[in-house]
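Intended use. Records like the one below are meant for learning the mapping from a protein sequence to its folded structure. Do not use them to infer anything beyond what is encoded.
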Amino acid sequence: MDPDRLHPQARAAIHVQQRVPLTRATLPAARLSMIQATPDEVGGGPRIRSVVTVDAGGVPARLYRDSDSGALPVVLYAHGGGWVMGNLDTHDGLCRHLAAASGWAVLSVDYRLAPEHPHPAAVDDMARALTWVRGPGAARYGLDRGRTAVAGDSVGGHLAAVTARRARDAGIHLAGQLLICPVLDPAADYPALDEYGLDREEMRFFWDAYAPPGVDRTQPDLDPLRADLTGLPPAVLITAELDLLAAEGERYAARLLAAGVPVTAARYQGLNHNFPRKLAIFDAAHIALAQLAAALKRW
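Structure written out for the chain above:
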């Protein structure tokens, strides 16, 4: 990659979070680093009408609402962090912005993390949360059970994509899916070094933590590119030019389109991995958020 193509805001963002070489021993420090960088990367987000902690079918979650006008449609949100990091607080600002901009309720899911809880723990937690959203327990929170979407950034995009396919297989209609710089290909051959915020060794660590060696990574719950994609809900897929994951995200968008799924795919030039989460740094993050919110309004 040509460093001259790196957006000035991306160049500054690289130095905000202290990167820790990932091993089992250093994972606690890496988790803490992501949390500590959140105020500078994401900011606090807007004040909205309601933020409450809920038990979503046995899965901890946080529900965001910025409207009191009847039952709201709800987007089920899976945070990024390589399946091993991230929590409700690291994505609080993003979920607040999404709820305020879209008029939808946002249910942020605190799924179990690897390596303590490897596949399929995270995607099973997403499934339980989706069942709760569509059941009677969610009614007291003013949610429209008939209008549900899924969303996620980075590995959260992977969880959202798998959840959408599982929902289709279970006969559950979803309004749409928002996939932000998603991880999609467990067999991807990445460059040895990426100076823009994500590298091959990190991706290997993430995959080995979530789907340890010996697990069949060709199954659709791990490799969405191998799945039958017909009948999936409309998708908006955002990629960043200088992201290791851009190519697989764009391949997935092409496969969705070939399967007859309405897709909007946008590559943001000069930017690096998961810029839409970093609303306190990137002007483009607000543009991407507006794009996602506009899709929800259409759905």
